[in-house]
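Sample 1 of the test manifest.
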Amino acid sequence: MVELHKVDVVYEDGTKGLKDLDIHIDRGELIYITGNSGAGKTSLLRLLYGDLMPARGVVKLEKKNIGHLKSANVAYLRRDIGVVFQDFKLLEDETVYDNLKLPLEIFYLNKTIIQERIYSLLKQLDLFTHRDFLVRKLSGGEKQRIALARALINDPMLLLADEPTGNLDIKNADKVMDILLNKSKKGTTTLIATHDKRIIKEYPGRIIYLEHGKLTYDSAGGRKIQNA
Amino acid sequence: MHKLKYAAIQGAIIFSKNLRKNLASILTIATLLFFYLAVFSVNYSASKAIDKVSDIKTIRIFLEEGVSQKEMLKKLSNLQMPASYKSYTKSDAKQRVLRLVPGARNIQKLPDNLFPEFIEMKIADYAAVNGLVLETAYKIEKIGGVKTVEYGKRVGEKLGKIKRTSVLFMLFISVLTGLSSAIIIFNTIRLSLFRSKRKIMIYKLVGATRMFVTSPYLFSSLIEASFAYVIAIFANQLFIKGVETYLLKDSYFLLFTPPAIIYILFYLLLTFTALFSALFCVLSFLRRLRSLNEA
């Protein structure tokens, strides 16, 4: 489903973010991208949702080359991808409902359909009673579940989560991981950039280890990458 | 159609949400437009008055020696102009000068034959417009037996120059007003964009197209321009009424108000300016917008 072949990413200041990356990901896989700070975890996610362009190599999603999309086409790519951030990136002064409305509005859906989809998802995530709450009044765990709901509301084929449990306590982190695992089991390919060794241990998945932008370990086949 | 409706509703929401903060800008545009319309109304009125004065309805035709007035009247009637004709003999011509210069006693002493015979042609009011007098005079000059034609040419030319200058002046302030309105609208849209920066970033993250983000701001600018224009039109009407009622009260002179089509044309130009300005503003904002990841 996702293929990266000899991919380099170079930042504006000229430093390399990712180097010679080769990764193949199948549909429905749950993958942890781990490594130290500055290893290139976030860059890999940004590359996949079209926020960074590769300087070299091929990036494919569903066999479509997404490496050098025009900005107009990046918008359409992102409709198939859900993204979650460590700091949630929600509109704090708006309600839960209004935050979840944003990804649906871009399809010009009518109010009734938007409402049905939001209510149904909020019920699944046990957040229905919070629908009219202002986001700034919610706890960190609740905010992260809302951010996750926003990423899931269009039923994406690829879910990218950048340190989704980074700001959460164990109980809330588990709630978020349960949702991610559940989605992955239903066929959504899920990539989680994380430092959290506990969740990697408790929620098993494929592990990709990056070091200075290079792939140094891939648990698919338990192989350690040569020449890393 | 659905997309257009959505953009219009969102544009109205953006406009109403930012109305209080943008009120000063809207009033500035309205004031600017009011000044423009007021200057335009006065200029238009003056220009119309110049037309009336410079397009003098009377043409005097002086004949060559030996050409009879009867013969000339026949030739003039061939022009089929809606006009009346009056023949002046040498004596009539002398009396006319005496009427025009009542104190000139010396003229009385001059013999009649020093005054040239001529035919006076008065073009009907309804036909004496848009340079028709001038055109007719040129035609008459070409008729055989005509020595000279007099029609207030010099006055017409002088006033014509003033009119051309005023047209240039109006063009200059039109460009200036258009530019100023565009800059103010650009700024208000930019402020609205900055207020919604995070929301726009999220829209981009979830796959909103450039058109989806841009179109509500285009509508918002359209509403803003229309709002300012309505205020300006209202103020201009008050100005015209005020000028006619108080300043021109005893002058037997009324302002020629521009026809409605001119106001519609101005509105279209303004909306085009607003749309162009907003489009440029949103696109340049989107181009410089950093990724949500870096925000």
